[in-house]
């Protein structure tokens, strides 16, 4: 079993930045020659989350966790990641690991992620404005960018 394409996204109820909802997605691929139950363990900000998934032989399955299924993924008072010059670049360690039913780790990924949210505005001939996390305007009229 391998972990492919891990992805973490965050959403904040802007302009309020006192909480963030984290969504973790990854593809599980069973390279074995038999089907079996696998246990997914994820750690973010000292919260350990565990879930079970059945994986068929040769199958790839996207696994998604969010606060509706895993309440620990709703962070209170997160330390936000800000672009250089606008504030701290706070990062959280993330560990994804998948274990077989007999507790053997078949794959593990470690990386860091920031809690942030990017939005943009701009319509018609108006310059594109990109915002990070809640307030800071990063670019106006950026070349190569389109509001569509």
Question: What keywords describe this structure?
Answer:
Immunoglobulin-like; 148 residues; mainly beta; single chain; four-stranded antiparallel sheet
Question: Could you characterize what this model shows?
Answer:
With 148 residues, the chain is mainly β. It has two domains: 2-115, Immunoglobulin-like, CATH 2.60.40.10; 117-148, no CATH class. It is built from no helices and eleven strands. It has strands at residues 2-11, 19-29, 36-44, 47-55, 60-65, 74-76, 92-100, 105-113, 118-121, 129-132, 136-140. Strands 1, 2, 5 and 6 form a four-stranded antiparallel beta sheet that branches. Strand 10 and strand 11 form a beta hairpin. It is elongated. Residues 134-148 have low confidence and may be disordered.
Write the layout of secondary structure elements.
Layout: E1 2-11, E2 19-29, E3 36-44, E4 47-55, E5 60-65, E6 74-76, E7 92-100, E8 105-113, E9 118-121, E10 129-132, E11 136-140
Antiparallel strand pairs: 1-2, 2-5, 2-6, 3-4, 3-7, 7-8, 9-10, 10-11
Short description:
The protein is mainly beta.
> Residue-averaged pLDDT, rounded?
75
Biggest beta sheet attributes: 4 strands, antiparallel
**Alpha-carbon Rg, integer:** 19 Å
Helix proportion range = under 10%
Structural class designation = mainly beta
């Amino acid at each position: 079993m391998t972990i492919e394409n891990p992805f973490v996204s965050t959403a904040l109820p802007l302009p309020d930045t006192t909480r963030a909802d984290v969504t973790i997605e990854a593809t599980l691929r069973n390279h074995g020659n038999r089907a079996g139950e696998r246990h997914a363990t994820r750690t973010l900000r000292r919260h350990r989350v565990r879930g079970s998934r059945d994986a068929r032989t040769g199958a790839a399955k996207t696994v998604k966790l969010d606060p509706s299924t895993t309440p620990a993924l709703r962070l209170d008072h997160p330390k936000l990641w800000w672009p250089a010059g606008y504030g701290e670049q706070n990062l959280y360690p993330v560990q994804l690991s998948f274990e077989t039913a007999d507790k053997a780790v078949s794959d593990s990924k470690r990386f860091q992620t920031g809690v942030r949210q990017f939005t943009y505005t701009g319509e018609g001939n108006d310059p594109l404005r990109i915002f990070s996390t809640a307030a800071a305007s990063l670019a106006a009229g950026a070349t190569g960018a389109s509001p569509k």
